[in-house]
Amino acid sequence: MTALYKFVLRRVGLAALSLWGVATIVFVISKLIPGDVARVAAGRLATADQVAHMRELLGLNDPLYVQYAGYISRLVQGNLGTSTITRQSVVGDLAAVLPTTIQLVLLGMLITVLIAAPVGIAAAVSEGKAADIVARIFLVTSGGVPVFWLAIMMRWVLGSILGWFPISGTNSVDGGPPTVTGFTVLDSLLFGTVGNLADSVFHLILPALALSAPFVSTLARLIRSNMMTALKADYITFAISKGVPRRRVILRHAFRSALGSVLTVFGMQFGWMISAAVLVEAVFGLPGIGSYLYRAIINQDTFSVLASVLVIGFVFIATSFIVDLLQMAIDPRVRRAQLGAA
Amino acid sequence: MKSETADAHAAPLADVPAVDDPLRLADAPSEIAAALSAGAIGGAAGRLGRRLFGRRTAVVDRIAFGLVLLLVVVAVVGSFARPYDPFAVQTSSALLPPSSAHLLGTDDVGRDVLSRLLAGAGLTLLSAAAIVVLAAAVGIVVASVAALLPRRVDEIIMRACDIFMSIPSLVLALGLAAALGPSMLSIIVAMVAASWPSTARLTRGILRETMSSSYVESAGILGMSRVRLMLRHVLPNSLDAIYVQASMEISGTIVMISGLAFLGVGAPPPSPDWGSMIAEGQQYITTAWWISLFPGLAISVGAIAFGLVGDAVRSFVDPTARRSS
């Protein structure tokens, strides 16, 4: 048990180091802003007085190390500054929009695995045959198409022309569920009606589908190649010659052993999807961190942009931390390797 | 050592320092020139080319190579020959659907979509190439320096790369480009800054593998300095793998450039880059779908073709990867 304790402690240290590193990178980026930073921070419409006030507030007259120390200590207290557009705390703004992004990404992950697993398995089983080639073309295509364009096209064809899906927002205008957690799906489930629930999920399907395209490609290719290796193992040949049904061999025997790196990549996709969601949310007008970031860029609210970068980086680090721990809990091979070394 | 000095590129014997001097940078420029000379690079590229266009190339890969060549030709031709001026605003011919006069229609201020697409092709390909080459160059330098320095420093450098990689590259590039101000140059700088850590890490892995091969170990035992070893043996023999890695980056880079431009951190209007064209056409999608549709198709075709070529390049260099790609 001490080995496990040591491992977790080391992993926590690593995560803390990464958090500090990400914060430092963002600080350095904020120093690269050309021109008068105080003017940038105060916003385009600021008066000379406001700019001077902002310069004082940001401590731009202080030496660099004092600025850095101040920045880190504010960060530790959870203060990311004030948006020049909404005039509100950036942390508050981000906390309000994060649930929308997270539920979009979770649905995106569900769709990803629902498409990638069957496609990857089918391609591996029919290696070199027609189904494999069709799968390859599908995966190459879904991996190459830019998500934001796919989102626009899906919204246009499936939403506007065919009218199958709503084209924007998180709920229909007439009565969404009460906002309690901020997760519209969860709110509908707990406090709304069945109609609310269907409505809020329905609004997310199209964005989530567009979002999942490149991730389906990565995951299915990995599943395919892992499955192909697994299917060539001796115990598979043995199981088939023993007379175990083919379906069972593929799903129970081969797929289980092919899962190892698939689970890691799938877990990491949570973080990557949050960054890709930036591109999709803007298209569908979903009020998540992506739309927030997009609006901040359009309004040249550079400090809100950097704060969002920081928050996404933090979520990403937290994700890989959790994925590592989960993987150790699930996979005995990883557990042995990690704890053996510790 | 004697046979080494006979080589035209080798430094004079007098310059060869004591064996225990791990860092000898005095004659590094000439060594770098030798390692990365046109001959070395050209040789590796030629080998690759012969394998790529050989008789056993699959149909899909041939199509992909053809598409990539077509894109390059379109970009070159499009840089001077276009049906209309891609910047000429003519409100009288705004939002015209595709016709024989305007093959791909016109946008909201009457600019010809095809002409803008052609003008944007060179922009997209050049910036993608610049990003991949620069990121690879930074990666090679960082990785080889890391490999030469003591183990502890090597570990610190690689850890720093890990930290960089803990911000998703799209978001890091987005933040950096937003801070630098909207321009194509800031996209290139931002993308290089966001992608060098992963290239450095991958290159470090490639170098480590080459360094563990027996001929490199033998040369080391013979007393060759580590810098010379790196520049004359390890780097030239790692070039194939580095090419593969770079060729696989192009596809994703094209998509990411367009994503950044779509979000508005790219070249400011009226730049004809494909991502901004999609953004401009987005609000007209139900009435003038051609403004957004065609640039997106162009990006997709480019990304898919380069992606297939990357896969093919990898499977030619590393046959074990062929079945699993």
Describe, in plain words, how this protein is organized in 3D.
- The complex is a heterodimer of chains A (342) and B (325).
- Chain A is mainly α.
- Chain A is 79% helix and 0% strand.
- Chain A contains 14 helices and no strands.
- In chain A, helix 6 packs across helix 9 (194-231), helix 11 (246-284) packs antiparallel against helix 13 (302-330) and helix 13 crosses helix 14 (332-341).
- The longest helix of chain A has 39 residues, at 246-284.
- Chain A is globular and about 85 Å long.
- Chain B is mainly α and 325 residues long.
- Chain B has one domain (31-87, 104-321): MetI-like fold (Orthogonal Bundle).
- Chain B is built from twelve helices and no strands.
- The two termini of chain B are 43 Å apart.
- The model of chain B is unreliable at 1-26 (pLDDT under 50).
- The interface between A and B is large, with 58 and 46 residues.
Mean pLDDT of chain A: 85
Number of strands of chain B: 0
Which strand-content bin applies to the residues of chain A?
under 5%
Quote the distance from N terminus to C terminus of chain B: 43 Å
Unreliable segments of chain A (pLDDT under 50, ≥5 consecutive)?
none
Total helices of chain A: the number is: 14
Q: Tell me which protein chains meet in the greatest interface and how many residues each side has.
A: A-B, 58 and 46 residues
Poorly predicted sequence stretches spanning 5 or more consecutive residues of chain B: 1-26
Q: How many E-type strands of chain A?
A: 0
Helix content of chain B: 55-70%
User: How far is the N terminus from the C terminus of chain A?
Assistant: 11 Å
- Helical proportion of chain A? over 70%
The top level CATH class name of chain B: Mainly Alpha
The CATH homologous superfamily of chain B corresponds to MetI-like
Using only C-alpha atoms, the radius of gyration of chain B works out to 23 Å
What is the subunit arrangement here?
heterodimer
Task: Please give the count of helices of chain B.
Answer: 12
Number of domains of chain B: 1
- Going by CATH, the architecture of chain B would be Orthogonal Bundle
General shape of chain B:
elongated
Give the overall silhouette of chain A: globular
